[in-house]
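Entry:
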Amino acid sequence: MKRRTFLSLGSAAVAGSAFGARTVFAQTKPAKVLRFVPLADLASIDPIVSTAVATRNHAYLIYEGLYGLDANLAPQPQMAEGHLVDDDGKRLTFKLRSGLVFHNGEPVRAADVVASLKRWMKRVPHGITLADRTESLEAPDDRTVVLRLKQPFPAALWLIAKATPSTMPEYLANTDPSQSIKEAIGSGAFRFAPGEYIPGGRAVYERNDRYQPRQEPASYTAGGRQALVDRIEWRSIPDVSTATSALITGEVDWIDQVLPDVLPLLKTSADVSVDRLDQYGLIGELIFNHLQGPTANPAIRRAILAAVDQTSVMRLTMGDDNLWKAPIGCFTPGTPSANDAAMDVLGTPPKSKAEIQAMLKEAGYNNERLVGLHASDHPFYGPMMQVVAARLTEVGFNVDDVTMDLNTVYQRRLSKEPLDKGGWSMFITAGNGFLDFSDPASPNILRGIGEKGFYGWPTNAKLESLRNRWLASGDLAEQKQIAADMQREALTTGHWAPLGQYFQYSAWRNELKGMNKSPVPLFWGVSKG
């Protein structure tokens, strides 16, 4: 990030060029460059500090973890050769596979892995869960990691495998987890090119020639990660028509998430493939500030849940009924944790204005201002907030719908100040249907750990107790009941408001082969030409 380069993005229609300037690379043979259009630009390079989708996708490109998940969602070794369990299940010993090298040329040591895990365990909910059950985490030699638990905890390996990878050199991993790292150095199949990073414009990744992939076939985040292109360029193109034009004319190769309006056009192109790579979809979330303003009152939050009709939000945002599902509860439809508990408190089917105003009167609402952080540049969060704000205004809330770009939302949501000092009441985001909402342990927003938790900072001891019971249980029927109990507690207290499940299509040039079906865009195994 010491050197900045400028990328000119045009706004041409289909017949024109999407880019005003091209980068020319001096080399003996043409590099295989994959040009990717993410839904949002890369604002943070730190997967521990930021929960942004772009940061998570960036992490999968350059970092690895001890274990990954295969297509059956079972933990499989990645950086590790394997592990041993002894001391009645209280000690896990991992042996690193040979040949692991960081992008700066230094060998990966167990001390680097331990420091990276400890940073994860201080900030990320899954990591905090494991930290609470950990006696010690040590590196007795350069290839051995020893995790000692306070008591047997069968979910430990699953938590490590499901985590967004973040193994980095020890000196970077020692960065305070509340502060962003200054360098992005991992050991994965691709390396980050900091000199070509333009926040809001471009991020570049180059093939890591030192990388030695595992021999097993790739399977979701497990197995061999074969880098089959020389360079990956993330190009931020906020204008939908410009991005669509660039794909059709071959100026970009892959659009991560295609907006519903342009699906028909892309499907008519003989040079483009369109498919749903992520079968789990995304879960829309309306997040409340539990510390400040009217939304600190659970009765007000319950009234908001009752007012918001998920069907209206989804239909006006996504259009085609095949692209969304509503109403939903706290967990992804079709997963073992999905249930119908307390769904009657939601605003689907729509409740009358009189019903909502009666709830507001009982809650003691006196026209206090609600500040909504409205990401107007986001193709899904923006329309969702527009629908939510209009509906809340209609039924009697005093809504200050403050428009800004998504990166400003990311900054504003950090504030715990009162509303008149830059604080907020609500914002909209989305979580991955598999990574974030397939089980009670994963959703950041279902934690009840107050200011140590996700934005909004809810405190709920009952939710925490239920989550711990779910993690300790090995019985599927019991886990399903616990999930229902958690949903009932979350919805009846207005912990957050689910807005529906929506599905994204990806589109890519036909010369790309080996596209991965997964909840996140994975670039290994993808070839061009």
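The radius of gyration is 23 Å.
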